[in-house]
């Protein structure tokens, strides 16, 4: 899957997502967003996912930017664990299938 990267100005982020200049600076300082070479511009991967999530966590839940960093890290961890569980579940299903004599084991 190809990652979409866009250059967005602070003004565009404010207009589209309700994230002001001070908030965006905090997110950049925490490493949640990357500054672009142009002044007051951000380089954002998957902006239609990340920026609304940042806005929702900050404005909707009232989380401080430092807490948002932790929430996003936990989310990545949960997604990784869900993917690992899906792989292991598929592997267990395949081994059960093999033990019942219904087919060979394939590498996952």
Task: Give a quick precis of the structure.
The chain is mainly α and 108 residues long. It has four helices and three strands.
- Enumerate the spans where pLDDT stays under 50 for 5 or more consecutive residues: none
CA-based gyration radius: 20 Å
What is the approximate shape? Answer: elongated
Give the SSE order as H and E letters. EHHEEHH
Number of helices: 4
Strand content: 5-15%
What proportion of the residues is helical, as a percent range? 55-70%
Main beta sheet, described? 3 strands, antiparallel
Tell me the number of strands. 3
What's the N-to-C terminus distance? Answer: 19 Å
Strand order of the largest sheet: 1-3-2
Detailed description of the structure:
By secondary structure, the chain is mainly alpha-helical. About 60% of the residues lie in helices and about 10% in strands. A 3-stranded antiparallel β-sheet has the order 1-3-2. A hairpin with a 5-residue loop joins strand 2 and strand 3.
Topology:
Elements: E1 5-9, H1 10-17, H2 21-29, E2 34-35, E3 41-45, H3 47-60, H4 65-99
Observed structural traits:
single chain, 108 residues, mainly alpha, three-stranded antiparallel beta sheet, 4 helices, 3 strands, 11% strand, elongated
